[in-house]
Amino acid sequence: MPVAAQLLRLDQVVVSYGEVGVLAGIDLEVRDGEFVAIVGPSGCGKTTLLNVCSGWLSPTSGRVDRPAALRMVFQQDGLFPWLTVEENVRLGLGQVADPLEQQRRASALLGLIGLTSFASSYPHQLSGGMRQRVELARALGGETPLLLMDEPFSSLDYLTRLKMRLELAWILRTQPRTVLLVTHDIEEAAQLADRVLVLSERPARIRDEVVLKVPRPRDPTDSEVVSAVRRILGVLGLKPQEGAKVGARQN
Amino acid sequence: MPQPRTTVNAPLLAVATPIALILLWGAVASLHLFPSSLFPNPMDVARGLAAEVQSGRLVNDIVASLFRVSTGFGLSVLLGIPCGLLLGHSDVARKALLPIVNFFRSLSPLAWIPFAILWLGIGDPPAIFLIFMAAFFPIVLATTAAVANIPSVYFRVARDLGITGSRLLGAVTLPAIAPQVITTLRVTAGLSWLVVVAAEMIAGRDGLGFAVWDARNGLRIDLLVAAMFVIGVIGASLDRLLVQLTKIPSVRWGYER
């Protein structure tokens, strides 16, 4: 079976601010079509790692090979509030010169995320989950092979997060992309990713890699997903019972 | 048990309340508790207003005041917003100029009246200068703050989408600061209207401020109140006009979040 092309590669990436080390020699390789998730303790440098991958932040040392174009879905509200839903999505289609074609593709993307009837609404008129869907549609519009997602569902309530995971899995079936997802939600990572990389405390290193082979969309109670969650909790030094308590509080 | 809310006819209330106040004013004036030279009755004011309109003086004064405000305020918007953009984007410019802007912002525009007369004489130029001094610095400060508070995620998204250079200004910066700038324009337009009256009272030969001063000198309290009435109506109308800017769909987000 041929090995998929390498899309993103980090070699011994170090980020430090003076004496304070954030990333301590990260090696990472993401291949075409893969869905890789990064989890780790709060404040360990997950977002810093994603910023290095996106090119927003230069590493103190090490090498980063990334594709020329990529799109990012942000934790904060990244939609432009002065534009309608459709205008936001069309902004992601900048590579399409013909306005009619742009319109057609924007309509198709809105159909994909189920928000056709909200095309002329403004972001502040939508729920948090709807806004994240629009952001995803805008990112998909770029047709770049790599999507970087920085805790995209963290501001949503638990049920909406569950729904969004399933929707993302379905959308990626229709519009396949390579995804690098940073999340604090271990269950989310296990439900979506082909590989979950577990970071240590600061300065962060990759402590473990958990591979999942169940096809998406996945049932969160699937035995492989549950055992991946247990393993990650174990790596992070949290017994499953303690992890369950933390999850219950968060949710 | 919760009581049903009483429905209020807002437009009717907005008309009925001033009418009631005028009737109350008329009733108090008819009691002759104060001499008419100190407390005119509304009918005298209405007659004075009609005479001023007929003579053409009132229209002339209104046009003169509006010209000064639109010129002074327009200049402060045209120069203040670009200066605010510069200060908002450049840390060096902010460090160098913000203390100076704050210093001038703290000076009452009326403190400039002696210089305005000495440098520019009387008539339009000193009034325009004073309005400019009143509106320019608040606009610079508000624009600077608005630019500095644009969430950085918008710039990251813009970079991701290939929006850079001069396109960034029109596609991100200006729309992102629009709600805050519009609010400041409403405040500074009101301030300009206050200042034009004061400037014309001292350094004018026409305009509504001059009309107030002239009526006071001629001991025509009815004309003085008539001029005050017109000043109030125009000031409120200017604000209503600027409120329309907040109803533009692409800026509503700034007021509804």
Number of helical stretches of at least 4 residues of chain B: 11
Q: Biggest sheet of chain B: strands, sense, closure? A: none
Total discrete domains of chain A: 2
CATH topology of chain B: MetI-like fold
The helix fraction of chain A, in percent, is 25-40%
Contiguous low-pLDDT stretches of chain B (5 residues minimum) are none
Question: Using CB atoms under 8 Å apart, which protein chain pair has the greatest interface?
Answer: A-B, 20 and 22 residues
The best one-word shape of chain A is globular
Rg estimate of chain A, integer Å: 18 Å
CATH superfamily of the largest domain in chain A: P-loop containing nucleotide triphosphate hydrolases
Strand content of chain A: 15-25%
CATH fold-level assignment of the largest domain in chain A: Rossmann fold
Q: In terms of per-residue confidence, which ranges of chain A show pLDDT below 50 for 5 or more consecutive residues?
A: 243-251
State the fourth-level CATH superfamily of chain B. MetI-like
Q: Evaluate the radius of gyration of chain B.
A: 23 Å
Class by helix and strand content of chain A?
alpha/beta
* Secondary structure tally: strands of chain A: 9
CATH architecture heading of chain B: Orthogonal Bundle
Q: How does this model look, in words?
A:
The complex is a heterodimer of chains A (251) and B (257). Chain A is built from eight helices and nine strands. Chain A has 251 residues and is an alpha/beta fold. Chain A folds into two domains: 168 residues, 3-Layer(aba) Sandwich (Rossmann fold), CATH 3.40.50; 66 residues, no CATH class. The longest helix of chain A is centred in the middle third of the chain and has 17 residues. Chain B has one domain: MetI-like (MetI-like fold, Orthogonal Bundle). Chain B is flat, with a radius of gyration of 23 Å. The mean pLDDT of chain B is 91. Chain B is built from eleven helices and no strands. The longest helix of chain B is centred in the last third of the chain and has 38 residues.
